[in-house]
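Lab channel / #folding
Pinned by the channel admin:
"Please post every new chain as: sequence first, then the structure tokens as a reply. Keep commentary short and put observations after the output so the thread stays searchable."

First post following the new format, from NK:
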Amino acid sequence: MPPPWEAPPGAPQGWVFPPTGGYPPGAGPYGGQPWYPGPPAGWYPPGFDPADPLVTPPGVGLSGWFDRCVGAVRRGWRLLLPILLLTQVLPAAVLSVLSLGLDPTAKWETSTVEDPAALPDTFFTDLATIFLVLVGGSLVIGLVQALGWGAGTWVITRQAAGEPVDLAAALRYGLRRALGLWGWTLLISVIVGLGVCFCILPGIYLAFALSMAGPVYLFERHNPIGRSFRMFHDRLGLLLGRVALVVAVVIVCTVVASVIEGVGTAPFGTDPLAAPGSAIGVVAVIAVTAVLALPAHLVQLVGLLVTYAEQRVHERPVNSAGLAAELG
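Reply from TO:
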């Protein structure tokens, strides 16, 4: 009986696992027959660690990906929660309160009592003010959120590699990467926005195809848009399924939080910040609903990072320690 197949020394990048001998994967030289003797069950070539807590090895499937997502949350929630509260939840709540404070609806209703069909005298000025403040605030908040994504990625990856982590070091790392990640995020937002303007489907396609750009920048810091497109098209089904699950959870959490916020703030009227009592009430509602959206931020961070790690291992052997070293 011939000995079991082993990876040849110095196998070139891009070699196929398991080997096919030039035939379609899983087929032998005779039609319909499996390759014989083939690698033993559960065998992985050098460099692959089936027990790696972050990297899902080839062939494990959705359950392995899900287990690693859950494991990342269990290991890191004590640090991830304050990071996301400071960089995602708090900025979103501040922007919501700012939007209420700038809402001119009450003033417009007062100024058009005599002629409801007429535009308020300050209509265009108010719109310009709202636009400039909200766009400027969103840009600043985007920079803070980029800091949080960098810090969270650092925590999850180093914990998987068994390296020490703490909140201050995580935030320092996020601060170093925030500006670059923020710039790429802005560019990607413009690209996806243009796709949505032309038609909804191109926008959705671009959002999925560029979903790996953030992790690519943090780990590789080179050509994140091109690399994300390549990952998406090389393993379309795998990446599409993972990212679709993440998007579904994010949409559900966001919609639930938005509905609760709308219902909770409605009793306070069109100008809730005019009186101290209503102001305290509406700010409390916004704070609670912002915290309810926290699972969406956590799922997005962990889900995309574990998906990126899985994409990398399909290209060449990689483990958590190697990814932690790439973060710098």
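NK: Residues 1-39 have pLDDT under 50 and may be disordered.
TO: also worth noting, The radius of gyration is 25 Å.
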